[in-house]
Amino acid sequence: MLYQDNDYKTIAVVNPNINSPQLMNALGHATAGLVSKIGGSEDLQFLKYEFQESWSDPSHISQYPYIILKAKNNNQLKTLHQALNEAGIVHNAFTHSMLGSSAEEQMSNTKSTRMDDMTYMAIVMFGKTETLTSFTRKFSLFNG
Predict the structure, then answer these.
(1) For a tag on the chain, would you pick the N or C end, based on fewer CB atoms within 10 A?
(2) Which of 64, 51, 67 is nearest to 7 (CA)?
(3) Could you give all domains of the chain from N- to C-terminal order, each with its CATH number?
(4) Among 68, 48, 66, CA closest to 58
């Protein structure tokens, strides 16, 4: 069954060599940051999913698919990051420098680390499906 609302997508490309707890952390932070960059729910078309039970707060889920792909290596993620920047595609990257004992330390590490020395954990992007496909066709579906 193909999902019908495919005009736009959120696509994450992850580094499969990162252990699962760190990868899930990176994916969560990268996605939250992407939503902040987009600046609202209109683009993502958040829908309100209400539960039958009255005590349950509704969930807000994007109408559009969220796809998780995997890179073969760190260099593919670096190349993707550069290409997305050059094309002006809204995206958010999470690297090893963003792990540390405080946000201040993480920001300092990120600012002082050369891009060639970064270990990418995840890159999340949002946009028109046809546009994003040109950047992501070489990646395969992440299967955990």
Answers:
(1) N
(2) 64
(3) 8-141 (3.40.1490.10)
(4) 48
